[in-house]
Structure formats: C-alpha cells, structure tokens
Amino acid sequence: MNRSLLKRSRILRMALLDSTQSEKDESFILRATKIAAVVALYWFISISMVFLNNYLLENKDLDAPIFITFFQCIVSVGLCWILNFLSKLCPGFVDFPSLKFDFRVSREILPLTIVFIGMITFNNLCLKYVGVAFYTVGRSLSTVFNVALSYAVLKQTTSFYAVLCCGVILGGFWLGVDQESVAGSLSWTGVVFGVVASLCVSLNAIYTKKVMPVVDGNIWKLSYYNNLNAIVLFIPLIAFSGELKSVLEFNRLTHLHFWGMMIVGGVFGFAIGYVTGLQIKFTSPLTHNVSGTAKSCAQTVLAVVHLGSSKSNLWWTSNMMVLVGSFAYTWVKGLEMKKVQVPPETETTSSLKSKDDSMV
C-alpha cells in the first residue's frame, strides 16, 4: 500500500515538473515569437515606407515633394482623429489619448514643428535626389550632429570611444560621396539635403525633450499637434514653391491608384512611430538601434538588387563603415549608460532620437 502511494506521488511530482517545464518552454517560445514578429513588422513598415516614398518622389510627371509631405501630415492627423473616435467607441480595445485642440499648446509646440517640417521635407528631398541605395550614407550624419549639438547646446561631453565611432561614420560618409562621384551618380543637391535632414533629426530630439511636458509626456498628442501645425505651415510653402501648379497639371490627379499610394505612404509614415515604440517595448532602446542598423543594411542591399546596379568594393566599404560606426556608437553609449545611472529625461531623449531616425 505504502509502495503504491509512494509510486503514485513520484509519478505526480514528475508530471508536475514536466508541466512546469513545458509552461516555461512555451512562454519562452511565445515571447521569442512575439519579438521576432515585432522586429519583422518594424523592418517591413520601415523599408516599405522608404521604397514607397522613393516611388512617389521619383514620379517625373509630378515634381512636388513638399505637397507629398504635406499630404502625409494630413493622413497622420486623420488617423489621430479616427483612433481618438475608436478609443471612445471601444475603450477596452483601443487606447488613445483624448484630443482637444488647445491654441496655447499649438503655439508652444510651433518651434518644434518648424524643425519637424525641415526634418521630413529635407529627408524626402534627399531621398528624391540620391535614391534608396545611397540613402543610408547620405543621411548618416545624425549621430555626429547629435554629439556636436549635445556639447554646443546642452554642454554634455562625449567619451573618446563615442567620438571615435563618429569619426568612422564621417569617414564612411566622405568615402561614399567620393565613390558616388567616381560612378558619375553623385547629386550634391541630394547630399546637402541629406546633411540638413541629419541636422534637423538631432535638433528635433532636443526640441522634443523641451516640449514634452506641454503635452503631458504623451507622444501621440505631440504627433497630433506637430502634424496639425505642419499642415498650416505647408500651405504657404506649397504656394510659394510653385508646386500647386505642378499638382493641378498632373495627368493622374484623378486616378485612384495615385491617391491610394499617397494614403498608404501616409499610413506607413504614421505607423512607423507605433512600431518603433513597440520594438523598444518588446526589446530595448539598444536592441532597437541595432535592429535599425541591420535594417538599413538590408534596405541598401535590396535597393541595389532592385535597381540591378553594380557597385564597387569601396562603395560597399563606405556603407559598412557607416553601419559599423553607428552600431559601435550605440554599443558604446549602452555600456556608458550601464556604468552611470542615466537621468530619465536622457533616456527619453535617446529613445525619441531613435524614433526620429526611424521615421525619416
């Protein structure tokens, strides 16, 4: 009898242990699957957005990059209203802040909006003139500007190893420009736009940090006011640039395919903010930056394959220098943050800069 009870208890214990182990394995597999799905979604949205914007901007019949950017801002505001409505209709399923227009908030965010307009406009202009293949190198100086502005504006010093990483990025940038020139495909206009876009990305991170308290630290409210302000400011820019005439004379203005692509581009531009935050949530800011660097590498390879072009070894070296320098900078800053307790606002700015880099 006792032997029988002992045997049963052993079997029960083994069954419970196997069940616990199975639950642990299942939870690990489930978490790994979720992370893989989120990273894949981030890559898909980000790469698709760049190629889609390139498709819209390369349209020879419509030379209106400011109008395209303006329309994407309209889509972003429209999506904010839709999500706000759905959050009231289905509060348990959709979580979105209440949107009530406040002129005071809009006015205080205006300096950030001016930088934001510069960031997205010059980014699209850079993409228009240099293409997707050289885009990573053409817009690679945001990290360098971030270090320079942190010292000039915030009086924050940077470690020797971080500066060394910036030197590698700068070297890759100049080598890339040289190789594009040798190949006869260099657009100095595109390079200048890329440099200005990189500067605006860094300025955007600094101004975002300053105005976040105005919107109670809510990134969606900030996105709403930023895009709403941008729509108003874009109207005179479109008028003075002469793009309105180009848009009205566009022969496919009434085609559903054109507007469909424009809307999808706007949706992807809005979605990149969400998937960036999702990737940071499921991994970490450091892992997000590593993922972004790997994504840029994949994006460049896809662009070269898609165009069917042949690039020199030095051209590829320039891309690898930019990517390795960016990865190394992320790794160095990650190690420095572990050694020193970083203030919450610094971590927030770092995450926001990652988001800015993804969005443009």
TrEMBL record:
Keyword annotations of the record: Membrane, Transmembrane, Transmembrane helix
InterPro entries: EmrE-like (IPR037185), Sugar_P_trans_dom (IPR004853), TPT_transporter (IPR050186)
Membrane-topology annotation of the record: Multi-pass membrane protein
Domain Sugar phosphate transporter, residue spans: 34-329
Source superkingdom: Eukaryota
Homology family: Belongs to the TPT transporter family. SLC35E subfamily.
Function noted in UniProt: Putative transporter.
Name the record gives this protein: GDP-fucose transporter 1 isoform X1
